[in-house]
Amino acid sequence: MDRGLASVMAETSKPPLAKRYHHGDLERALLAAGRRLLERDGLTALSMRGLAREAGVSATAPYHHFKDHAALLYAIGREGSADLAAALRDARDTHPYGRDQMIAVSVAYVEFALANPGMYQLMSDTTRLRDSVPPEDDPEGAIPRLIGQAFSGALPPTHDDVDRRLRNALIWATLRGLVDVAQFRFADPLKDLLGSERAFLEAVLDRIPMAREA
Amino acid sequence: MDRGLASVMAETSKPPLAKRYHHGDLERALLAAGRRLLERDGLTALSMRGLAREAGVSATAPYHHFKDHAALLYAIGREGSADLAAALRDARDTHPYGRDQMIAVSVAYVEFALANPGMYQLMSDTTRLRDSVPPEDDPEGAIPRLIGQAFSGALPPTHDDVDRRLRNALIWATLRGLVDVAQFRFADPLKDLLGSERAFLEAVLDRIPMAREA
DNA sequence: TGTACATCAGTGAACGCGCGTTCACTGATGTAC
DNA sequence: TGTACATCAGTGAACGCGCGTTCACTGATGTAC
Questions:
Q1: Is B178 on the interface with A (CB under 8 A)?
Q2: Is the pLDDT of residue A2 over 50?
């Protein structure tokens, strides 16, 4: 259904821009198919052949758009990074004030990971291997920056730069770990008790004490 | 070398117990080979065939000891859980007092994960799929318990059970996230500055404020 | 406007790989008499 | 003590699978004249 809609749209908008070879469409379709695979069947399902199959195209067609498997993963990971950055910006803009903003941005981060586990895993793998990746226009850079800004608005300023960076490390760890913990069984009764997953996340984040000192 | 030692020991102790078919040795050798593979080449290298190759045995021999691939992963994951639990117990016993103990146990957890990344990944996967695993003598249960005890000794008691569980969730998240964060590039200068990875971990954990309130 | 040409996205066959798993077997060992 | 037997750990061939990647190709499209 989602796919039907997409292809109808693709057919409807025949001359999308001035330059119109018979280019472009498959690449977008492949990226969309890749994200569908990623969320439906997980990171291991995101193979070149699986991608071609999902897009209804021959097994080798994707090679005209992605040099190899790693390039495909990289391209899709970039899309995920852009989406996450957008979600964080949105949370920031709708919650303009210190502590409230910090929690909103954090919740947005964790909720993105929970809603897109395959993408989050891909992004994490890419992050871990980051050194072997062209850092030129590194879109991942935006995410730590957004989070750092949200927290620095909520925390008391510190003269000690090392202390500041250690606090940032702790905050990063908390967010990343919360993604795991929210998926554990033992969190289920707490979510029920508090009424929703989001309430659970907010309650946990509310116990980050550095923010309390603000 | 490790392997040489093990096989020498195995040969030396010929009649290890009363009952002595030609049993037992390969299973231990396979588990050892599996752990070697896991740390040397990562979780994806831990295949039935790779295991047999590493142990110098035919590709199908492991099937006499592990029903299938999942059973192999499960068995090796159990060993990892036992090791981690032992490391946590050791940290607890050598640091008997509240806050000091909490940090020592936490550091032991993170250091285990950093020193055994393949095993930690396997254990995490197993944990995530825990519901589909026989919970009878679940050795994983010991790890949350040890961590929970270490923290409850360092934190002020709370009357509110929900509050206590939310704090536990935050602590869990911090530990698991710290495993990631300690591997990020941006942690490297902090490790250098503080003199060691352990010092970095302790410094971050020292900023968990709930412990400060104790 | 019409035709020849160049471009290049997409095809389909083929390669070699490692995997999990099955099956009938072999051979060393322990047990029963 | 000696022999026949049962057990069962380990073997080797074989299966079907999905993968990444190459290669020569085809065919639709845009461009040049």
A1: yes
A2: no
